Amino acid sequence: MFLILDRNFNVGDFVRWNDRGGTVIGIGLRTTRVRTPNNEIVTIPNNDLSTKRVTAVARRKPIGFTVVAESRTIAFRQ
């Protein structure tokens, strides 16, 4: 509960704890979920995060992209 109230980090932040790191993808009442650079999802008890050293490195910037859809009709004569 204290982890949520303290707001040490938010969803989208890159955090480091122990010898691991990853992007926070969810913060619940009991656990925090983190996606590692290897694309693994790690669930960490909030009690562990409140008693260990956690460093919030940076907020992940959104990646923007554009999708272009195009449709063409080609007629063939036989």
Automatic annotation (TrEMBL):
UniProt-annotated location(s): Membrane
GO cellular component: membrane
GO BP, one annotated term: transmembrane transport
InterPro entries on file: LSM_dom_sf, MscS_beta-dom_sf, MscS_channel_2nd
Domain Mechanosensitive ion channel MscS: 1-55
Keyword Acetylation: no
Chain segments annotated as coiled-coil in the UniProt record: none
Pfam family, one: MS_channel_2nd
Protein's UniProt keywords contain Membrane: yes
UniProt keyword list: Membrane, Transmembrane, Transmembrane helix
Main location: membrane
Name this polypeptide is given: Small-conductance mechanosensitive channel
Taxonomic lineage of the native organism: Archaea, Methanobacteriati, Methanobacteriota, Stenosarchaea group, Halobacteria
